[in-house]
Fold:
Amino acid sequence: MFQLFLMTLSGYKPVSILFPMAGVGAGISHSYVTIFDVKVVITPLHLVGKRSLMLGNDSLFINRIIKIMEFELTLQIAAILFAVALVAGFIDSIAGGGGLLTIPALMWAGLPPTVALGTNKLQACGGSFFASWYFVRKGLVDLKSVKLALICAFIGAALGTVLVQLVDTKVLELMLPFLILAIGCYFLFSKKISEDDKHQVLTPTAFAFTAALGVGLYDGFFGPGTGSFFALAFVSLAGFGLAKATAHAKLLNFSTNIASLIFFALGGKVIWLLGLVMLAGQAIGATLGSRLVVTKGTKIIKPLVVTMSLAMSFKLLATQYQLF
Structure:
């Protein structure tokens, strides 16, 4: 239980955790001890208030954490990450691709890549939830009709998260920039992209077991461009208009985000406090973006999807070939 507390608090095995000695008189020495590879400050029980964890005859003072791991969460960093998440939530609710902003921002703050990905999933869950909730309230989404698709997307993401640990992702990494670029071209040139629903190619059940499961698997396995893949599937296979497709894509993306978050959390790869700060920004941005989807529809969605597809393709190619 003690280990679970520390790992949940920090998100992964930290280098050190320093606790403030508020209320402790000057000149009193404190001992340091390593527990589960975590360096903590131990102070005698009579010097600590009620907020403590018993540790034999001593107590671990946990009134307020000053520094965790290899980075310090200052007010300035929190404000910057909140603002980045707000912008990302706005973009994500319309076209996807918000991770292009949030993941680099988290790594800039000092998080290792896997922890950045896990924490990013937490804040992404907030954005996709609030966007989905807004779309449901406005009648763009019928929850009953996509219930099976939600379940299949969740299962797919869970399987993908496990599968990525077992297979080489190199081939997908090489193909992905061109796949996302193709999506951008489809949205740019296809005459099927409109506000009106078209003839559906697949029944809701068939869609759930093919498109929803497949894109969910991809999201758990790799991730970038998931919202665009879902939107493309709803337009081309379910026959939805673009605004309706975007709304349903965000709902399924929420399902896959939850599945991935569970696995990241179980692996201790989520920094909850930081993720919740960004989640608040995501919630605001996603709500604002969702309103534009409802009021502007294709006029705002189409150009932003094309722009974000180009940006994601360039970012992936630049990473592969180390252009910067």
Observations:
- The beta strands are 17-18, 31-35, 38-44, 52-55, 58-61, 67-68.
- The CA atoms of residues 161 and 170 lie 16 Å apart.
- The first strand starts at residue 17 and ends at 18.
